Amino acid sequence: MKNRDIIIIFCFFGLAQLFAQQKVYVLNPDHTQNIIQNTLVYSPQTFSVHKKMMQSTIHRKVKRKTPEYILLENSIKKLKQDSIALYQQYQKAVIKSQQTNQVIAYINRFINSDKPYDAKVNKLIAAQAIANQCGISDLIYADQDIQSMRENDFVLLSKNIDDLTQHLKNVITRIKKNQKKPTINYTELTLEHIDLKKQLSHKNKYEYYLEKEKIEKNRLILGEEINNIKLSGFFKKEDTYEVLVKNYGSYKVNELISKSEIIANKIPKETTKNLKANTLITNIKTKEQYYIASNLLEVLDYTSPETQIAKNQKYQKPDANISDAYAVENTTYSIQDYEVMILKCEKLTQKLKKHNEAIQEGIMTPDQTKIWEKDIIEARILNNRIRKYSELYEKKNYPVQEYVNEEAIKNYINFDKILKYSMENIADF
Fold it and tell me: Which structural domain, as residue segments, surrounds residue 54?
């Protein structure tokens, strides 16, 4: 279905849906003038209202931690970091001690072994590799690949096994002398941590301060007083408002403020104007807004037979002032015809649904396809008739939707959706 068709459908049912959703008041200038002149004992005040983008400064109460509390928290955090660093140092010391013990063990294996030099020299090679890792500078072994700059010194030592053995024993003595047992002492950190936690428990954790914030907002501003007979169309109530007689906080003079805002911000009564008007209304079509007395809409509400039917959402025939049918190009369009069309919509919707389900399930037969095509053609013709019917009555200022109940509207919208879906399916089938 084209976009134009969709737009027509929404226009066709727009007014009836609107009445179903909210309380709508109809104002007619002639009716308003008659009421004011012959019924009311006072002249009601009505003002125009416009929106204006305004900047204001608000003060927000902000909660934050006190500087003293943050300082103590940071000290405790640093203490934890120091504790971690101390433990990491201890772990490094443990590893170095283990490596040192390995160096000593390899040297002792070399010294205590009865094997020939060539068969046990690998112990010194392993000891030298570990010594290089843990920072032991003593000469244990050297050749062209390992500590090549000290190769000559090691060659001289290794020529005499006794000299080499004594040298290695001296190396062990020096390593043991410099070796320290890894220890860790948390006492000082623990005492400091206990003291800081105690101080923290006696401090106020939070404080409150006022923070300024600039905001831009569309404000409702009172305009000029207008003549009530200028109000024409469909209206809805928004809320009850007061008007400021002077600036108050972030609010400006002549600004409309809702009752809830007045209570929340404790705005004094003397800052508002003493007007008979107190209710904001909106023209549903033009979106123009006005400030009126709270009960004025009820007093001026124009309940013609047509608008009353739409509001009550009852299915009724047109009154005596509306012709039962229009003849255009020898074609008759009556309300009775419409009754038949709406009922037919619902029946066709069920048929199209069954066809679509058959396609989805893959059980559509050739014979059923022919019936399906026939039903789609019938549905399209019916849809075009309803649209033409609607357009004709709209031209005569007798909108059909004023005589349609809500259930009929739903049936037609559902019918239109199923028809559109079926036409897409048949194009791909």
Answer: 29-61+213-301
